[in-house]
Amino acid sequence: MKLLKLNFKGFRNLEDGEIEPGDKVNVIYGENAQGKTNLLEAVWVLCGAHSFRGARDSELIGFNSSNAKLYAEFYSQNRVQNAQISFYPTQNKKDKKEILINAIPKSAADLVEKTGAVVFSPEDLSLVKSGPAFRRKFIDSAVCRQRVKYATLLGKYNKTLNQRNALLKDIPKHGELMDTLEIWDSTLSALGGMLIKERIDFIKKLDICAKEYHDGISSGREILKITYDTNFETEGLSYQQLAEEMLKKLKAQVKEDIMRGYTGTGPHRDDINMEINGVSARNFGSQGQQRSTVLSLKLAEAKLHKEITGENPIVLLDDVLSELDNRRQDYLLNKTENYQVFITCCEESNKQQLKNGRIFKIDKGKVRLMSSL
Fold this sequence. Notes:
The chain has 12 helices and 15 strands. With 373 residues, it is α/β, with parallel strands linked by helices.
């Protein structure tokens, strides 16, 4: 996918306008709170109809605007296409938005199938710094965007998990319900086996790609290793065998589960290990190393997106250059030419490192093209 034109009206603090980005790296610079992240958010919204910052649709509408509209022309699936999203505030809890693809009303799912983007924001450092839930969410989101059926599988698993947990809480008061637990165990482990298999297959591919990017970002000084971590043996097992292993664990830990009132085994409890040169990135990595680790994961996600869908995604890097040394900055600015990249930064010196691309300045929401290299 290549973004050819982006038009924004009434969106966040951006002054109504239009940009035509370059095919390679696009640097957006300016002081804090001028709208740099809002511009990246606009691109992301056009690739999936929601904010990567978790904002409600109504929050995307500027303070002095009655609605917001985004329009994009892009090259995807071997032809030039266009998409438009309009946001309208309502009195109801659910906000109103309209999506048009090539002037035909469509859904957000249709938009995802036509487009593709990968985003890094400072909040993504939680992938390394925070608990397992953030890493599970990253993997699930990445797989969902590349395999639509995975989202259905994940939804079924979570629904079954909630029902089993509810049963675990009821059993101490209603012992006769114990006989029904076996049915939920079988269903949960069958779905869990498929989920774990999908995740493991994705992690193995992600590890190979992330290792390659991290080698480039660190100039060959660091080796990144990504592995999937669950509490039973998984190596070389089919999803049916994984389901059997999970079922054994569920049965072995049933007393503990009843005491806790929730299920202690399964993909909802798993984690992803990240190591740099054989030690934990979370426990021993510097700020720059942790940032490089997440960047490597995001670039690897982009490469896998291309392998699975046949289309390069747009890469959005928000405030990515801070806490990176000059060599790591140079790699991101000048050695990611396979993708159309949007990078925000505050430092004047950062944009001066760019050798091939376009530079935009943003000031009080107004975006201007400064140079094209």
